[in-house]
Amino acid sequence: MSFENKVLISRKALKELSLVPEAERELLKDRISKLAFFPLARLDVQKLKGYTNVYRLRVGEYRVIFEYDKKERLVKVLKVGKRENVY
Prior knowledge:
Keywords: Toxin-antitoxin system. It comes from Thermococcus siculi. By secondary structure, this protein is α+β, with helices and mostly antiparallel strands. It has 3 helices and 5 strands.
């Protein structure tokens, strides 16, 4: 039995990710790939209040906002950006 989730990245998130400086972008891509093992992976993740199944992943000064569908084993990255701009 596989515990791996499918990770999808929205077009908006891909565009936002492309605007991040290269060093931080590579770190973000690494952490996003580890979302395939959410919630088992040891990542700095918190559920967002006021939303159903929406979480934030903290990577330094950047945040990755994603939705998790446990039944479908699907992680969808919605937004990527600095804390002050992403919420």
